């Protein structure tokens, strides 16, 4: 009996063990849980209908759970269906025996399904703003994945669910501007946390294969972080910058395109699923090509960089950048093309939107650029090895501050430190300037300027030829702003003027107030006993100023005028009294010779004074003295009124008056008389004539009256013979002849 009992026990134990083993590893097919499973699906949504072939039960002894596997499950809802490739349920044996809610966990495998169809299903399970938003922005695509959920004792899904899966051929449009196309991606979704890995695909034509995104839901906001691997060939850069509200090129370019490979990190908050906030981007990579054709006015720039082509290209360059809502930091190193040739460059630019400030630090080779610096009489041709660097900042509506500007080419150097410009590119302040340049292989500028308590300029040589040329041009543009003040002390050992008549031992003292010379004096020597004196000072009333110039050599000041091709000798005296409303000036030149003056030659020819005309075009005509009184008024823009122009010499005398509208019109009239006619007329005057010219009277014709009128390049001249001289002409002639005789006697 005992043996049978033991035998039966072992048989039952073996059967039990075998049964448990079989159920644990192979399971049992049953329909016992079918109603329970289907009813549970109904509790989620009454429109859901779970369809499947069979269920299989496995025993988990370790957890005391039953695992129910559903074969070929399918969810039907709203006249459509979604295929599941897995549906596993874990049931607590203990809760089941106590007649409590026994479902502990569930695992659902989703077969490849249309993404919009899945969103509709998810929204039926639990509606949310995110699902509503997803339905609006997702255009197409397929999805497959796996869902793992845990249930509480009341049968509700816990928050620790997990969804993993893949997306195929996904298209979407976010915020009506982010276009997502042909994306294949992997994803993991947890409560309030979503991560994506892009296998392939692009956003707004930027290829983002191998990029990662992480989204955290916080109340009604989405916090987005991403590690991006991006490649692109964009034909409109600003349209991409517009996505992030960056107006870097807005309304400034006609064409912009870029090709790049970048790695970057990105973060921003999508406030209420709509508005981008707290944008931040950091990255680096390679720019294969950047082409910008802008519409910025470069006329002033082209006066210096004469072959600049209104565009620039960057190629084979490394880039590092950092962008956020308030600041953009961009560093680029590589090749740049400003003309028609690529050259090395390096730049760092920081745009600070909050401070309205832009910092920049640029180094660039400009070997292929043609450069003209007319104020220094400097020229650089193509292929001269040249570098330019500048560092500083610009504040909106305030101007530019340069910590350093350095231009280097062979033996030429221009170095500027701490120069400040206002919005009109007028100088507010300057700490130091060093200039060393050559012209025709000879040093033409070598000086240094420093500004502390005083402005000091010390130098070996200064090329004043551009300054002398500018005397015939009216430049109303101010170089110095109203903020520029100080006492100026300048000393040059040599100053280059025209016609190889250089000035030595030049010194100048000036008081600059509100960007203008309040008063100054300047002196120099042409040679022994040949001097230059210049001064400017306020008049007694303080409202007007007086400018005076005396030069023992007139040529440097006359030779720059294009209508006079030959001028020699002469002593020049000039005085001008001026204020804001205009000026009154007097010019005197004595003992000089002129030749190749086309207007005067034409006048002499028309007056049948061919012999004098021939002399003028040959060795020249000498004048004993020239005096001109003229004025200009603010109300008469660009008009010079010549009150009287009188010149007397051994060959002819000339008296005229009229006006000149600069670059537009010349209108003059006057009298021209050969010297012997003058002698004859003066000789008729008792006592005076005898004193001035002796007792012998010349023979010949009187002279002509003339009119000259027309544009500067097409002046028409008419002449008429005269038989009498005007009292004014005779009076002026007598005055001048008296002066000349006194000078000769002295």
The first-to-last residue Cα distance is: 171 Å
User: How many helices?
Assistant: 14
CA-based shape: rod-shaped
Query: In terms of quaternary structure, what is this?
Result: single chain
How many individual β-strands? 41
Poorly predicted runs: 679-701
**Radius of gyration, Cα only, in angstroms?**
47 Å
Structural class: alpha+beta
Largest sheet: 39 strands, mixed
What is the residue-averaged pLDDT? 81
Helix content: 10-25%
Per DSSP, what share of the residues sits in E-state strands of 2 or more residues? Answer: over 45%
Description:
This protein is an alpha+beta fold. Among the domains are: 23-171, no CATH class; 588-745, no CATH class. The protein contains 14 helices and 41 strands. It has a 39-stranded mixed β-sheet that branches. Strand 38 (652-661) and strand 39 form a beta hairpin. The N and C termini lie far apart (171 Å).
Secondary structure topology:
Layout: H1 2-25, E1 28-30, H2 34-44, E2 49-51, E3 54-60, E4 65-71, E5 74-77, E6 80-92, H3 93-97, E7 103-114, H4 115-125, H5 129-137, E8 138-150, E9 162-174, E10 178-190, E11 193-203, E12 206-207, E13 211-218, E14 221-234, H6 237-241, E15 253-271, E16 275-294, H7 299-302, E17 311-324, E18 327-337, E19 342-352, E20 357-365, E21 371-373, E22 378-380, E23 386-395, E24 399-409, E25 412-421, E26 427-439, E27 442-451, E28 454-463, H8 465-469, E29 486-496, E30 503-513, E31 516-527, E32 530-538, E33 545-551, H9 555-558, E34 566-579, E35 582-595, H10 598-606, H11 610-617, E36 621-633, E37 639-648, E38 652-661, E39 665-674, H12 675-684, H13 688-693, E40 703-710, E41 716-722, H14 727-745
Parallel strand pairs: 28-29
Antiparallel strand pairs: 1-3, 2-5, 3-4, 4-6, 5-6, 6-7, 7-8, 8-9, 9-10, 10-11, 11-12, 11-13, 12-14, 13-14, 14-15, 15-16, 16-17, 17-18, 18-19, 19-20, 20-23, 21-22, 23-24, 24-25, 25-26, 26-27, 27-28, 29-30, 30-31, 31-32, 32-33, 33-34, 34-35, 35-36, 36-37, 37-38, 38-39, 39-40, 40-41
């Amino acid at each position: 009996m005992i043996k049978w009992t033991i035998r039966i026990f072992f048989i039952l134990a073996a059967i039990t063990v075998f049964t448990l083993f079989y159920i644990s590893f192979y399971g049992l097919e049953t329909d016992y849980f079918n109603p329970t499973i289907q009813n549970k699906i109904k509790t989620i949504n009454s429109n859901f209908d779970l369809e499947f072939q069979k269920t299989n039960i496995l025993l988990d002894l370790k957890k005391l759970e039953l695992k129910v596997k559903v074969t070929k499950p399918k969810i039907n809802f709203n006249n459509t269906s979604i295929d599941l490739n897995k549906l596993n349920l874990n049931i607590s044996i203990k809760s089941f025996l106590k007649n409590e809610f026994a479902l502990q966990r569930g695992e659902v495998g989703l077969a490849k399904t249309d993404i919009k169809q899945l969103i509709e299903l998810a929204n039926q399970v639990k509606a949310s703003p995110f699902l509503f938003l997803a339905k609006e922005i997702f255009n197409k695509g397929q999805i497959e994945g796996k869902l793992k959920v845990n249930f509480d004792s009341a049968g509700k899904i816990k928050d620790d669910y997990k969804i993993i899966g893949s997306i195929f051929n996904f298209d979407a449009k976010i915020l009506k501007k982010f276009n997502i196309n042909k994306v294949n991606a992997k994803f993991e979704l947890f409560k309030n946390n979503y991560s994506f890995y892009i296998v392939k695909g692009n956003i707004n034509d930027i290829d983002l294969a191998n990029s990662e995104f992480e989204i955290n839901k916080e109340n009604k906001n989405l916090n987005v972080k991403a590690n991006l691997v991006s490649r692109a060939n964009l034909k409109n850069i600003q349209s991409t910058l517009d996505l992030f509200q960056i107006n870097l090129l807005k309304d400034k370019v006609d064409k912009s395109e870029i090709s790049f490979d970048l790695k970057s990190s990105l973060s921003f908050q999508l406030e209420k699923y709509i508005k981008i906030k707290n944008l931040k981007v950091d990255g680096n990579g390679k720019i294969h090509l950047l082409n910008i054709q802008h519409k910025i006015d470069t006329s002033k720039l082209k006066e210096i960089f004469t072959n600049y082509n209104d565009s620039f290209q960057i190629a084979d360059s490394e880039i590092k950048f950092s962008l956020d809502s308030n600041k953009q930091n961009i560093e680029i190193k590589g090749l740049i093309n400003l003309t028609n040739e690529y050259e090395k460059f390096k730049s760092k630019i920081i745009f600070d939107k909050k401070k309205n400030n832009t910092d920049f630090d640029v180094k660039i080779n400009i070997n292929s650029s043609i450069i003209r610096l007319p104020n220094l009489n400097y020229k650089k041709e193509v292929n001269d090895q040249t570098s330019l660097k500048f560092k500083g900042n610009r504040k909106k509506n305030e101007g530019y501050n340069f910590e350093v500007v350095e231009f280097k080419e062979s033996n030429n150097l221009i170095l500027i430190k701490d120069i400040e410009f206002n919005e009109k590119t007028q100088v507010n302040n300057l700490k130091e300037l060093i200039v060393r340049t050559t012209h025709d292989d000879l040093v033409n500028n070598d000086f240094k300027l420093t500004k502390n308590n005083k402005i000091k300029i010390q130098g070996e040589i200064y090329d004043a030829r551009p300054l002398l040329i500018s005397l015939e041009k009216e430049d109303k543009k101010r170089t110095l702003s109203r903020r520029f003040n100080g006492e100026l002390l300048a000393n040059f050992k040599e100053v280059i003027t025209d016609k190889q008549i250089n000035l030595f031992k030049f010194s100048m003292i000036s008081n600059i107030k509100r960007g203008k010379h309040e008063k100054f004096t300047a002196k120099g020597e042409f040679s022994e006993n040949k001097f230059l004196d210049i001064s400017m000072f306020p008049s007694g009333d303080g409202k007007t100023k007086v400018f005076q110039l005396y030069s023992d050599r007139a040529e440097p000041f006359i030779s720059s005028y294009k209508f006079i091709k030959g001028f020699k000798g002469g002593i020049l005296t000039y005085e001008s009294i001026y204020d804001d409303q205009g000026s009154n000036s007097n010019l005197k030149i004595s003992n000089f010779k002129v030749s190749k003056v086309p207007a005067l030659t034409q006048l002499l020819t028309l007056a049948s004074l061919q012999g004098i005309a021939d002399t003028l075009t040959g060795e020249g005509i000498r004048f004993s003295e020239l005096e001109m009184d003229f004025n200009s008024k603010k109300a008469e823009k660009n008009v010079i009124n010549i009150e009287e122009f009188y010149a007397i010499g051994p060959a002819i005398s000339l008296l005229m008056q009229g006006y000149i509208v600069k670059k537009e019109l010349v209108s003059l009239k006057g009298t021209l008389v050969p010297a012997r006619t003058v002698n004859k007329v003066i000789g008729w005057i008792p006592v005076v004539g005898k004193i001035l010219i002796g007792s012998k009277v010349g023979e010949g014709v009187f002279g002509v009256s003339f009119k000259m009128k027309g544009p500067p390049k097409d002046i028409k001249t008419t002449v008429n013979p005269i038989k009498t001289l005007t009292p004014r002409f005779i009076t002026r002639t007598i005055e001048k002849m008296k002066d000349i005789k006194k000078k000769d006697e002295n």
